[in-house]
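Appendix B. Chain record.
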Amino acid sequence: MPEVLVDIRDARRVYELDGREVVALEQATCRVRPGERIALLGPSGGGKSTLLHLMGGLDTPSAGSVTFPALGQASELRPGKVAFVFQAQSLLAPLTALENTALPLILGGMPEREAQLRAMGALERLGLASVAAQLPEELSGGQAQRVAVARALAGSPKLILADEPTGQLDSDSAKHLMDTLLKALEDRDTALVIATHDRSVADRLDTVWRMRRGVLKTIEGALA
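Structure tokens predicted for this chain:
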């Protein structure tokens, strides 16, 4: 059995909103292992983003536990071991596509020249070498999202968490993004978890977990 990257046990997340408690996640239990391709399928507001944030160490549960057996402590996850791709525009406007892609590597301590070479390699794998010198405002929505994917891949993470990465793209751009992402991961044991409300995206992955109203319906990776 492969090592467990993320182990979530009975995790509950409650927020305070206008003096009342809002339950975003209710006793979720799941594991993510190397090489898995998981779709987290459900409507907006169903708790998908909350679960991704727990998986990536961006948040902590109100109850239950989240551990990273094969990754170490939550403080050690980023940059490097875990990478995020978000729905909204996440590129820094003053930086070129190449600079955006290299930035997490540099922040992680990699020499700038090496980081740029690694970043260019990631852009080339996603068919983006021709836009390496362009600013985010000069890119199409699909190109910008593929740059965000290249940035995630450049650091050779153990886990990629993508939160509605196709949510603001038309169907052709969304398909192209998924094609390039899955192809780039073909020869890697990087785990991929994509939160989506789009069934066509979920169908591209090996495993589908369903979420609704903060409840995760899954049994060790199998569809419940």
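Further analysis of this model is presented in Appendix C.
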